[in-house]
Design brief:
By secondary structure, this protein is of the alpha/beta class. The protein has 16 helices and 18 strands. The strands form 4 sheets. An 8-stranded parallel sheet has the order 9-8-7-3-2-1-11-10. Strands 12-13-14-18-16 form a 5-stranded antiparallel sheet, with helices on one face. The chain binds alpha-D-glucopyranose.
Length: 576
């Protein structure tokens, strides 16, 4: 290991002054294939990220998180990993990775990479070895191979071992043709894949699986990576004791540790082991769990200092744009994070959900089914109120960027990008679209390659993009917003810069307000944030000093305000 600095007697690692950098970081998620294409093949790549480091630095973020860039057949956008310790040749090389990390660090930007431990791809060496070996072999033991159940028609293993569905639709089991053993040449065992067929689940009871992920963590940490985002963290430990329990829907219905597949108590010893590895480094490497579990103290366990340190909190992402929801979620998450020693996380958009400017443009109370129906109608019905969606997204962002904790931003949200709801069906790539037999459209609409300029071919992205860009990307391109007062890009830049200057301690005080639609808080240094969630202007809280206004999500520059009102669906920031 290159970065292990033990104190002279080989005792505990010294505590680096930057050990807590992640606690209040603004982290920008890069979906590498859609960020910037340096070689014109239509797919974003690592040199493309390096080439845009100036943009990222000017944006004012503290870290980038890269979604998987590992070798992959892209059955699930790279979350089907062939080799955890390499770079997809279409996205670059390990040298390109090192160059990207060096340029990020030179710009003062930390680097977080995605680890995908629940499953590998079906092209991983271990899975190929498992398929080439007989049932019961050591090669099979690293995955979840089981005999099927009798189908009543003469095949004693013709039915899947359980009724578990895949998260992307269809069954979570695929049957293999045996190549070795007594059944060679005929259908035999089944393997578990909670996601696509190409994503076989690992057996986390196997010591080699555990050890191999420690090796992967060290591999990237040795290359200077500052942190890890842990995919499906709540899914690693499973109760596979026979008979397998029935669970016809994958959603977690219980949160007491009795679910056979998710959020089991024994998952925590895995992450305690990871923390030991992450703490071999100075500063210790950061980690954040992706664990879509209900908000109880069970979710906080992933974020304990003895485990990953942070867990994504998707509560704001799932909430309607409402004063009550935003305030109660922020209050609850902050107090729970404090109690557990973690810092809170905030997120509105990522590569798995409809962009929040579009969500906020659709009728309040839209369910996931409503959102899919809107996608299936190519975004035509209901007609989105785009101006309102963008207005609310900007207000929500300023509300969130003022809070203590880490803000996770998804590439393109700083441009006010909307969901591309009318992608041609033949261009769709999300496995959800195929596995639901074209009834659930999936996540491609938030993954369309970014527009960098309004004048160049492919909006300056590079070659012909792997998902087509709509014409309306032009005016939203980074180049078209650069230096334009009131643009969403300039709003993000200003907010992120002020956030650095003004943010000090991890606490806040909620302020009383005359209107139930207005939420306001003050940070210990006197910095104040006021959001009006309502559709009509509202009275500013008492004591607000208008001369201290520094930022408005409504686009008004400081000093332009001379009334005691706050515009509808907007946020104002006041300096101390
Ligand atoms: C996570 C990822 C998602 C992926 C899934 C399976 O939820 O964010 O994109 O499809 O895990 O790896």
């Amino acid at each position: 290991m290159t970065e292990l600095h033990l104190s002279g007697d080989g005792a505990a690692p010294s505590v680096h002054p930057d050990a807590n950098w992640w606690r209040q970081a603004a982290v920008y998620q890069i979906y590498p294939r859609s960020f910037a294409d340096s070689n014109g093949d239509g797919m974003g790549d690592l040199p493309g990220v390096t080439a845009r480091m100036g943009y990222l630095s000017e944006l004012g973020i503290d870290a980038i998180w890269l979604s998987p860039f590992y070798p992959s057949a892209l059955a699930d956008g790279g979350y089907d990993v062939d080799d955890y310790r390499n770079v997809d040749p279409r996205l670059g090389s390990l040298d390109d990775f090192d160059a990207m990390v060096a340029s990020a660090h030179a710009a003062g930007i930390r680097v977080i990479v995605d680890v995908v431990p629940n499953h590998s791809s079906n092209r991983h060496e271990w899975f190929k070895a498992a398929l080439a070996s007989a049932p019961g072999s050591p090669e099979r033991a690293r995955y979840q191979f089981f005999d099927g159940l009798p189908d009543g028609k003469g095949d004693d293993g013709g039915l899947p071992p359980s009724d578990w569905p895949s998260h992307f639709g269809g069954p979570a089991w695929t049957r293999v043709v045996e190549t070795a053993g007594p059944r060679a040449g005929s259908l035999g065992q089944w393997y578990l894949h909670l996601f696509a067929t190409e994503q076989p689940d690992f057996n986390w009871d196997h010591p080699e699986v555990r050890e191999d992920f420690h090796t992967t963590l060290r591999f990237w940490a040795d290359r200077g990576v500052d942190g890890f985002r842990v995919d499906v963290a709540h899914g690693l430990a499973k109760d596979m004791s026979l008979p397998l329990r029935s669970k016809p829907a994958l959603k977690i219905l219980v949160d007491d540790g009795t679910d056979p597949l998710f959020d089991r108590d024994d998952v925590h010893e895995i992450f305690a082991g990871w923390r030991t590895v992450l703490n071999e480094y100075d500063p210790p490497r950061a980690a954040v769990a992706e664990a879509w579990v209900p908000f109880t103290e069970r979710r906080l366990k992933y974020a304990r200092p003895t485990e990953l340190g942070q867990a994504f909190n998707f509560d704001l992402l799932e909430a309607p744009f409402s004063a009550d929801d935003f305030r109660s979620i922020a209050e609850k998450c902050l107090s729970e994070a404090e109690a557990s020693g973690a810092s809170s996380t905030w997120v509105f958009s990522n590569h798995d959900v409809i962009r929040h400017a579009s969500r906020y443009a659709l009728p309040d109370g839209s369910t996931p089914e409503d959102l899919n129906a809107w996608l299936m109608a190519d975004g035509a019905t209901p007609v989105p109120d785009v101006a309102r969606g963008v207005r609310r997204a900007r207000a929500a962002t300023l509300f969130m960027l003022g809070l203590p904790g880490s803000a996770y931003l998804y590439q393109g949200e700083e441009l006010g990008l909307l969901e591309v709801a009318d992608l041609p069906r033949e261009s769709l790539q999300d496995p959800t679209w195929f596995r639901t037999l074209n009834t659930i459209k999936g996540r491609d609409g938030c993954r369309v390659p970014l527009p960098w300029t309004s004048t160049d071919a492919n909006f300056g992205f590079g070659g012909t993009p792997w998902l087509p860009q709509p014409e309306w990307f032009g005016p939203l391109a980074a180049g078209a917003q650069d230096g334009v007062a009131g643009s969403t890009l300039e709003l993000y830049r200003a907010a992120l810069k002020l956030r650095r200057e003004l943010q000090a301690e991890e606490s806040l005080q909620w302020l009383a307000s005359a209107s139930p639609e207005v939420v306001s808080y003050r940070r210990p240094n006197g910095w104040q944030v006021v959001t009006n969630f309502g559709a009509v202007p509202a009275q500013l809280p008492a004591g607000v000093d208008l001369s201290k206004l520094v930022l408005s999500s409504g686009g008004a520059a400081a000093g332009e305000f001379d009334t005691e009102m706050i515009a509808p669906e907007s946020t104002l920031w006041f300096a101390p």
